[in-house]
Amino acid sequence: MPVKKIIIVGGGNAGLSVAAQLLAKEKDLQISIIEPSEKHYYQPAWTLVGAGIFDINKTVRNEVDFIPSKATWIKDAVESFVPDENKVVCKSGAAYSYDAMVVCPSIQLDWNKIQGCKETLGKNNVSSNYAFDMAPYTWELIKNFKGGTAIFTNPTSPIKCGGAPHKIMYLACDYWRKQGILDKCDVHYLSGAGAIFAVKEYAATLVEVVKKDNIKTHFSVNVTAIDGTGKTIQYEEKDKEGITVKKELKFDLCHIVPPQSAPDFIKSSPLADPKNTYGYVDVNKNTLQHKIYPNIFALGDCTNAPCSKTGAAIRKQAPVVVENVLSFLKEQQVAGEYTGYSACPIPTEYGKLMLAEFDYTNTPTMTFPINQAKPNWAMWILKVKVLPWLYWHKILRGTA
Known about the structure:
The chain is an alpha/beta fold. The chain has nine helices and 22 strands.
């Protein structure tokens, strides 16, 4: 039987995990990973960097060190997909064919959808933990803050790590409390979501944290512009009659999170869900197989599967994709099922964390024999110490 060719688009958490797991099961597969970046980032730690307790340099390593030895690294970026010909075309002009393809290039940060954002980011007291070079600036702003108005934003679009916009807010408030200045801080949370968290058991805990920190929440709002020099942020919300009203807030510190969507090369491709505003890959939410092209699978942040976009979700999706890709190549029915599992470790203060785990139905799926909706020290250690080690040494190697 001829060697089967598999192309993996994306060398992040999802792509490397899938490649390693595939080769562990079928060492004779011909796997190519298309990934333009020479660096690999552990993004979940950027909140901790922004809170002053994690070294930013420990969140980046060389991509080459994690490419499986039996896989080929194509250091290029995808330009377009030609699924009817089982072909992918790169920006260099090179084209590659495949028997099966796994699409997992993560998500695109649409900074340009907030007017003035790119121009002011990293200065004028405006930062974001969604960028490697910005997270340390977040900490500079938090530790030097002496009081005033602090704004934390969350866009209307789905985003990677949906808890990150408010994780840093809780840690900032706790830091300011310890400095004795929280009563001088007017903290606002501008969120495109309709509530603090989608799962009621975990939301109940966060409502109490918001109350304790005296945070003013603004839900179902859309941040449209930021003026760094003028220290103002503009947003839209609907009034009681459903009419969109434009509003503005002054700030002294702002942590901003950009709207996000599928990468442009997916949005404009035949792989995109035509009914999805954000252009995500159109997959069966359980098998993660493309709805039109059966030899294409996708996982991670780029899909339209209605789950939270987290590393924890990828960890459960990867073995499903591996099982189903191998079944497809053997002309067997795909039987692997992903149930929507995701996890969101939310620090509510320094030294305490709530580990939210849930599935497609927003039902808690707790791993540990404790009430995970109650923040505790053990879960904090999991986030700060255990998970980073697990990521670099096990997850990317396909053994966790």
